[in-house]
Design goal:
Elements: H1 16-31, E1 58-62, H2 70-83, E2 85-90, H3 95-103, E3 107-113, H4 120-125, H5 157-171, E4 178-182, H6 216-226, H7 240-263, E5 267-272, H8 276-283, E6 294-297, H9 310-322, E7 329-333, H10 340-352, E8 357-361, H11 366-376
Parallel strand pairs: 1-2, 1-8, 2-3, 3-4, 4-5, 5-6, 7-8
């Protein structure tokens, strides 16, 4: 994950999805004039019908508006289903939206922030739960990059129990079909390239103020495992065992939440960084080893200054690494595309390279639905 300008506010002064995508989109907008997408090779894929014979499941990320009329929702969701949309990731709890979607034969999943949690009550009651950077600053009182970046420490048992209980409370609702994890990672130690100018940062190496987590619990747990404190290393950012320790921390959180969701007979998916290599390098996210029912890599090519064909490259890398353990749904960011033709090509690049479907962020209107139908049927 999903913003036309950036206004840094607290987590509850605007929706989390808008905050998240504004943070990313701000630099894309500011840098858009600096480059243009190169022309594609000209492949239309019309000579390769085999990839179109599969049954695809497409998804949409949505922040439900409580003012929406049920009659309008029925029409909207019926149009989604007719175009091949399989389900919706809803960022807030709205029984009206979920039940209406289900009546139109769509799956209704709750989209939830996991490790990035800035609730005022949580900050006041448990500041010790928040991650600390290599420079010693806590996300509780000195968030990196932007004000809503308040990252929890995944080493702490009380954090894992807190998140597990939250997922359990969502899964108990009969109108919720599953849970969709977002921000299931550490803070970005490396930002996507197109964001560097906006934040006046050159992240050609891992800088201490963005490298997490070095709290006492993390350091003590690692020392018990390996016999030394990561801060005793000359270059902790280069320590392979210390890096793996953090990959495993997030994997443990995911797999516990997976057990919780599956205990209710419900599905669990996650929005992740675009490829296994980028995810591990930038945010300590080892999603190939997670126990999920599906993955939605956010293959937002504009953020990485890549052309549309890179969507296919990213999908191919992910599909190969997954070895069929669960399906990959290629996340695309509609404002990244310059034309309808580019959207169509992006969809086809993803499907041709093994994606089980597309997950859309942006305005999914009749025009986009028409492109989806013609590109994947």
């Amino acid at each position: 994950m999903h913003f036309l300008c950036i206004i840094v506010r607290s987590l509850y002064s605007q929706t989390p999805a808008m905050n998240k995508r504004k943070f990313l989109k701000s630099a894309f907008v500011s840098g858009a004039g600096a480059f243009t997408l190169p022309a594609l090779a000209g492949a239309t894929f019309s000579h390769e019908p085999a990839f179109k014979k599969r049954k695809y499941k497409h998804w949409v990320w949505v922040n439900p508006n409580p003012k929406d009329a049920e009659e309008d929702l029925h029409k909207l969701y019926a149009s989604y289903r007719a175009a091949g949309i399989h389900g919706i990731f809803f960022e807030a709890d709205s029984e009206k939206h979920y039940r209406t979607a289900k009546k139109e034969k769509l799956e209704a999943h709750r989209w939830m922030w996991i490790m990035n949690r800035g609730e005022k009550e949580l900050l006041e009651k448990h500041p010790e739960w928040y991650a600390k950077s290599r420079s010693g600053d806590s996300c509780a009182d000195k968030p990196p990059y932007v004000g809503y970046y308040r990252w929890l420490c995944p080493s702490r048992e009380e954090v894992k129990t807190y998140l597990e209980n939250q997922v359990r409370s969502i899964m108990e609702k009969d109108y919720v079909d599953g849970i969709h994890l977002d921000y299931i990672r550490y803070c970005d130690v490396i930002l996507p390239l197109n964001l560097w100018n906006s934040y006046n940062i050159e992240q050609t190496k891992e800088l201490p103020e963005y490298d997490f987590c070095y709290c006492e619990v993390c350091r003590n747990n690692f020392k018990a495992l390996k016999g030394y404190d990561p801060l005793d290393m000359q270059y902790p950012e280069a320590g392979l065992s210390w890096r793996k320790f953090r990959y495993d921390n997030i994997t443990t959180v995911v797999n516990r939440l997976s057990e919780t969701a599956h205990s209710y007979g419900k599905k669990i998916t996650a929005a992740v960084f675009p490829t296994p290599e980028i995810a591990k390098r930038n945010v300590r996210q080892d999603w190939l080893n997670w126990n999920l029912d599906g993955i939605c890599p956010m293959i937002y090519h504009g953020f990485y200054r890549e052309d549309v064909s890179w969507i296919g490259d990213a999908v191919a890398e992910g599909v190969k690494g997954l070895h069929g353990n669960f399906p990959l749904y290629a996340g695309i960011f509609l404002p990244d595309f310059k034309s309808d033709e580019e959207i169509s090509r992006g969809i086809q690049y993803a499907l041709k390279n093994g994606a089980a479907g597309i997950s859309f962020f942006g305005k999914v209107d009749d025009r986009v639905l028409g492109i989806l139908r013609s590109s994947s049927v």
